[in-house]
Amino acid sequence: MEKIISLEKVAKSFGKLKVLKDVDLSLGRGEILGLLGPSGAGKSTVINVTLGVEKADAGTAYVFGEVMPQRQLLGKMGYMAQSDALYESLTARANLKFFAEMHGISKEGLDEEINRVAEVVSLGKALDQYVFGFSGGMKRRLSLAIALLGNPLLLVLDEPTVGIDPALRRQIWAELHKMKEEGHAILVTTHVMDEAELVDRVALLMGGHVIANDAPKKLEAQYGVPSIEDVFLKAEEELS
Ligand SMILES: Nc1ncnc2c1ncn2[C@@H]1O[C@H](COP(=O)(O)OP(=O)(O)OP(=O)(O)O)[C@@H](O)[C@H]1O
Ligand SMILES: [Mg+2]
Question: Boundaries of each ABC transporter domain copy (predicted)?
Answer without folding.
Answer: 5-232
